[in-house]
Amino acid sequence: MTNLNHILIVDDEPLNLEILELTLSELEDVEIISTLNGFKAVNYVNSLPIDLIILDLSMPEIDGLEVLKILKSDEKFRYIPVIVATAKTEDRYQALELGAEDFLLKPIDVVELRFKVNNLLKLKKFNDLQKHFNARLEEEISKKEKQLKEFAQVEQELELAREIQQRLIPQTYPNCEQLDVYGSCVSASEVGGDYLDVFKTECHKYTVFIMADVSGHGFASALVSMQFRSLARMELIKGSKDFGKEIERINNVFSDDNESSSMFITALFLRYNHETEIMESVNAGHFDPLHTPKLEHTPLTKGIPLGIQSGLPYGVISAPFQSGDNLFLYTDGIIECENENGTMYGNRLDGLYDVVQNYPVKKQIQVILEAFHGFIHEQNDDVTILAIKAK
Predict the structure, then answer these.
(1) Which of 123, 137, 298, 358 is deepest in the core (most CB within 10 A)?
(2) Taking a C-beta distance cutoff of 8 angstroms, is the pair 328, 269 a contact?
């Protein structure tokens, strides 16, 4: 906004224009524009930034009242202050009814003119600021409304994604006389990157257990975990003889698809042979399960996370998994969440599992989650756990 005030003087008498121009020229920061014609006055208002109009009512062709009607009926110009000049009382009242801000009686009092002009220029500046503020306010409200609509749409999409992801997590577990299985997956946000799966192979010889954690959490991680689920199921449901080779093929496909991304997956794969009661394990950069049975003297083989590099071998370890044996699988969320003092849950999980491992697996999960949520201040990462017990 400029500091210069543009005043338009409209009068069909050249002498009146000259007197008004001389009188107003003494005011600071004022530029005078004058015309003898009402039509030209309307054209000036349409083309120039006018701050104040001094309008004679008695003019030929189009009089001052008609000019005033045109100006005050247009949203763009109605806030321009207008001082009407007239010798007729009835014209003065009619002009005020049409929206004129003030009037001058002819002959014009110079002091009164300057006083009224100064006051109305201040009013115009105030009106301009108010219009600017209102425009900014409407703009901000429009932005907020748009953001709220977008947010609501995103919320709906996230809720749908959460429902889809939750449906992919086992709600029931394969019936088996040899195993008792129960798990839980609680996301830190609407959707998360943890993945839990339990299923039997097509040949019914094996039950496969997968515990995985996609780097990060949120919508992107959830999409990767759902992609990984399809890939892992498609490969492992075959139940081929070489468990390690199956994991290698999963890593090769995921690594090739993941070349342009920095995301990776830590995962633990278990496979229970119902005929031999042997549990096989392949670890791709994940935590070893708690209370691994009869593996105290077996060298553990931990490969790198999936998606970092293709063509890598993944070793398999195996051990009997028989009546009374327990396994507990988990992601990092349960040990790294903190309480109000910044203390992580950490090794408390090991100690608690020592106490509950003889419980039925569903009770194990319930007790562990209750203790965990009683300890932490706020869950800021996905928490996925799975208990397996040989009957």
Answers:
(1) 123
(2) no
Compute the CA torsion angle 217, 222, 224, 228 (nearest 10 deg): 120
Question: CA 117, CA 100: separation in Å to the nearest integer?
Answer: 13
> Which DSSP string do the residues of 75-137 spell out, in sequence order?
TTTTTS-EEEEES-HHHHHHHHHHT-SEEEESSPPHHHHHHHHHHHHHHHHHHHHHHHHHHHH
* Cβ contacts of 129 within 8 Å, gap of 6 or more: none
Closest to 85 in 3D by CA, of 32, 11, 27: 11
User: For residue 226, how many other CB atoms are within 10 A of its CB?
Assistant: 18
SS3 content of the chain, % helix, strand, coil (to 5): 40, 25, 35
CA separation for the pair 324, 357 (Å, rounded) = 10
| Contact status, residue 217 vs residue 190, Cβ threshold 8 Å | no
Closest by CA to 116, choosing from 38, 23, 207, is: 23
Pairing of strands 206-214, 265-273: antiparallel
Global model pTM greater than 0.70: no
Strand ranges (E), 246-301? 265-273, 278-284
Half-sphere exposure of 305 (CA within 13 A, CB side): 16
In this structure, what token pair is assigned to residue 282? 């392949």
Q: Of 302, 329, 305, which Cα lies nearest the Cα of 316? A: 302
In 177-286, beta strands by DSSP E: 179-186, 194-200, 206-214, 265-273, 278-284
Give just the sign of the alpha carbon dihedral 288, 293, 295, 297.
positive
Tokens of 370: 């209750």
